[in-house]
Amino acid sequence: MILIVDDRRENILPLKKILELHRFTVDTAESGEEALRKVLTTSYSVIILDVQMPDMDGFEVANAIAGFSKARFTSIIFLSAVNTDKKFITKGYTSGGVDYLTKPVDPDILVLKVKTLQKLYEQQQELRAAQDSLRKEVEVRKQAQEVLTERMQELQGVLSSLPQVAFTVASNGQLEYVNEYWFRYAPSPTTFPDVHADDNVWEEWKRSLIDGVEFTREVRLRELTTGDFRYHLLRIIPVRQQGTLTRWIGTFTDIHPQKQAAELLEREVEVRTNELRVKNAELERTNHELQQFTWVVSHDLKEPLRKIQLLNDTIKEKYLKDNPEAAPYLDRTIRSSARMATLINDLLSYTQLSAPEAFHFTNLNSLLTDLLQDFEDVVSKKRAVVDIGPIPELDVIPTRIRQVFQNLISNALKFAKENVSPVITIRAERIDTKDIDGCPAPDGPYCRIVVQDNGIGFDEKFLDRIFVIFQRLHNRTNYEGTGIGLAIARKNIEKHHGLISARSREDEGARFILVLPVRQTIEGPVTETR
Prior knowledge:
Elements: E1 2-5, H1 9-21, E2 26-29, H2 32-41, E3 46-50, H3 58-66, E4 75-80, H4 86-94, E5 99-102, H5 107-161, E6 165-170, E7 175-178, H6 201-211, E8 215-222, E9 229-241, E10 244-254, H7 256-319, H8 327-351, E11 359-362, H9 364-372, H10 376-382, E12 385-388, E13 394-396, H11 398-414, E14 423-431, E15 446-452, H12 463-466, H13 485-495, E16 499-504, E17 510-517, E18 526-528
Parallel strand pairs: 1-2, 1-3, 3-4, 4-5, 11-18, 12-14
Antiparallel strand pairs: 6-7, 6-10, 8-9, 9-10, 11-13, 14-15, 15-17, 16-17
């Protein structure tokens, strides 16, 4: 903005009109006092000041304006029609004016001078703004540098207190700082420690330095005093500020004792593994020999039993028909031989349970329907009812799971109440966990199968005994059996990685509960069987 100061309005108006025609914003004052008031509140780029004015002349106004900080960059042009002597011109310049024009003034010259001074004022304003911005930036950088220096001092304090080799590296890969432990492995703070010839660590570190990524390696450092190599874990991580990598922080952590312990443990594991291989081979050989022995013994035992049974039957038919006193004794001998044969067969079945077999996806409803055909005579004789609900296909060993249901159904028929038709129900549901009391879940990974009867039941305090081989809760006189059936069932369920348990009360029937995985994930290949 341009300020024209003149005590005569007829002098102001032409100048104002000329400047406004050249797109200048113009303000006016008709006395020195008015001009000073306006300068205090408004910034002007150029002041055109008349010299000859009443009360305060132009020189006095200029001297007063020079004392205002707001106008220190304002240019003053003096105009005078009377005071044209050299001494007045000199006084104008010494009062703070940048030019001294005499009237009449050439309008074009005046406009050119005002334009030049206006441009100079704008450049000064831009320069001041740039200086202010630069000053602020310098201040910010200074504060950032102070903060950075403070943090570096804190970092170095932390690194110096660590009980391990610690260092920092500049972004160009040069060492900046090392703590006291550094000198156990390096002769100076500017050289890296000597590493084992097989640990090509520094070449790998150069690649990480270029890529700007964390670097971690096991490395062996040579101790300067002893010359021995010790295992260390080297870790160098990049530090970034506002996305720019500024430095790296690294540590060497002594892991020599752990490494020695690990190597010792590996050797011990290798020794134990070899011992286990030998033991397993011995166990396999012993197991094979035991199976052969069991087969031979059972075969050698069954052959004499068959002869005893045959001879007893022959004696009974030929020689004891007419001797009612001797026949019962011979019948007892025949029954004992039959029990002995059953016991041998059950023992043979129990010893064969450890043999490996493949799992198959099996339709258990079809398996149970086929199994019930073996019980047709007993079911018909006892007028039993067997109700089988839908069972999902499971991943099982069909022959083994058949043994389980055969024993459970056989027991349910055997331990029926006198003069009460046996009722056997078999139900299944998917559950969420491998637990006898797991919660039902339509897509659960386990299946719970419950075999329930209305027989004589048992006291649950004997629950642990019923699954132990040769353990019986009832005497042999009332209920036949060898006490092996449920032990075989339990071993078969364990082979399926499942659970078996029971719930019962005396004279209130029994519930046998099986929990089996829907899919086997522990043993070998699985095929599909319908």
